[in-house]
Amino acid sequence: MRWTNEGTHVGAPPTGGAFTIGGIDIYRVENGLLREHWHQLDQLSILGQLGLLPTG
């Protein structure tokens, strides 16, 4: 499953900046049971959108 969420940064310290994050979840089902789950999201993109990455 591919997904996208939007939010406002309220972390420590809160910037109040808006961000969009995308991610992918992969599920492996065997005999009708969930056996494995992989979750990947782009946290580096959030830091860039909020201006929290070091520059040069």
Assembly state (oligomeric): single chain
Biggest sheet, strands in spatial order?
1-2-3
> Which stretches are poorly predicted, pLDDT < 50 over at least 5 residues?
none
Instruction: Give a short account of the largest sheet.
Output: 3 strands, antiparallel
Tell me the series of helices and strands, N- to C-terminal: EEEH
Number of strands: 3
Helix content: 10-25%
Ends distance: 36 Å
Structural class determined from secondary elements: mainly beta
Description:
The protein is mainly β and 56 residues long. It has one domain (2-49). It contains one helix and three strands, in the order E-E-E-H. It has a three-stranded antiparallel sheet with strand order 1-2-3. Strand 2 (18-30) and strand 3 (33-41) form a beta hairpin. The radius of gyration is 15 Å and the shape is elongated. This is Ester cyclase.
